[in-house]
Amino acid sequence: MKDLLKRYENKEPEIVFHWNDPETEAEGWTVINSLRGGAAGGGTRMRVGLDRNEVLSLAKTMEVKFTVSGPAIGGAKSGINFDPSDPRKKGVLERWYAAVSPLLKSYYGTGGDLNVDEIHEVIPITEESGVWHPQEGVFNGHFKPTEADKINRIGQLRQGVIKVLENSVYSPDVSRKYTVADMITGYGVAEAARHFYEIYGGNLEGKRAVIQGFGNVGSAAAYYLAQQGAKIVGIIDAAGGLINEEGFSFEEIKDLFLNKKGNTLVAENLIPFEEVNKRIWEIKTEIFAPCAASRLVTKAQIDTMIDAGLEVISCGANVPFADKEIFFGPIMEYTDAKVSVIPDFISNCGMARVFAYFMERRVQMTDEAIFNDTSLTIKNAIQNTFNHNSSKQNLSETAFELALQQLV
């Protein structure tokens, strides 16, 4: 696996598109790792300090994810080095998408990512640049449909991603109009933990869980884990955290979800970050869902959690471990040898899978069909890993090897 990984990491990307905004200090890159299957896909992010290497690592990560979620295309990513709170943001995005539109019409598909919203920014701004849909390039490069079929499938994709959830099994509150895009990634993180226990032995119900991050992914993961009977015993995000060693009730977790402000945990008895960060790793817990930013989880935190009974990590964040390597650094390798680590490209593939699902010919548009498809995709990936390695250790190493064999 290490040899495959090294060869994959060191291989130069096929295309690097570099852009300097003529009106501001913004600088952007689209990195297309490969045009496997005739196309490549990956979202657009914006943050201060972003550089080409970050975009490259994310493009390679997307390519691995597509081996699980489909379609069988190459990985790509776009990134803009600019402050997303700057009032000039909209103009920067308009000029960026105008510049990158030839790629988006031919062989590259994009979406929302960190600080760039799929619904309110990516779709309307790419339309202004003459792109039918930000995934048009994947249709043209990979699926090569007839014009009529492309119109139908783009319509299906457009409706599906922003579909308002109507089924109370999947929506914390149907009156608030949560969409598929709001909930699906966190749902996948929870389903990954459930399928792990079903396949490797055990039961999710009654297991204690700690959640890191309470944005879209972490809050939804907490909601669905609690719905399945897991006990959320701790939550930590940048604003602070909460601890209840007996486990919060499902109703309490639901209220926390409904009361969050944007991506921030809100509660009357919020523990300050410094205090919760000292205490939370020592709580008795079997499940850890890191769903905050990348590269945060340290070896010391892992060791403390293992001593407290940790069994499985379901990764909601891309590359949650504090390693500098693109994928499988020393902290992840160490952790993978001690407990079961479900890698991010399986556990957080929900949104990528939704895109793939709606790109297919006519599919069912019900909440149940959409969510079951993501659940089954994750289950199949974990089952495939188990079939090659039934041990609860080195799960991620096995999953990476299976993915890289398709790419190298």
From TrEMBL:
<feature type="domain" description="Glutamate/phenylalanine/leucine/valine/L-tryptophan dehydrogenase C-terminal">
    <location>
        <begin position="181"/>
        <end position="408"/>
    </location>
</feature>
<dbReference type="GO" id="GO:0006538">
    <property type="term" value="P:L-glutamate catabolic process"/>
</dbReference>
<dbReference type="InterPro" id="IPR006095">
    <property type="entry name" value="Glu/Leu/Phe/Val/Trp_DH"/>
</dbReference>
<dbReference type="InterPro" id="IPR046346">
    <property type="entry name" value="Aminoacid_DH-like_N_sf"/>
</dbReference>
<dbReference type="InterPro" id="IPR006096">
    <property type="entry name" value="Glu/Leu/Phe/Val/Trp_DH_C"/>
</dbReference>
<dbReference type="InterPro" id="IPR036291">
    <property type="entry name" value="NAD(P)-bd_dom_sf"/>
</dbReference>
<dbReference type="Pfam" id="PF02812">
    <property type="entry name" value="ELFV_dehydrog_N"/>
</dbReference>
<protein>
    <submittedName>
        <fullName>Glutamate dehydrogenase/leucine dehydrogenase</fullName>
    </submittedName>
</protein>
<comment type="similarity">
    <text>Belongs to the Glu/Leu/Phe/Val dehydrogenases family.</text>
</comment>
<keyword id="KW-0560">Oxidoreductase</keyword>
<dbReference type="InterPro" id="IPR006097">
    <property type="entry name" value="Glu/Leu/Phe/Val/Trp_DH_dimer"/>
</dbReference>
<dbReference type="Pfam" id="PF00208">
    <property type="entry name" value="ELFV_dehydrog"/>
</dbReference>
<dbReference type="GO" id="GO:0004352">
    <property type="term" value="F:glutamate dehydrogenase (NAD+) activity"/>
</dbReference>
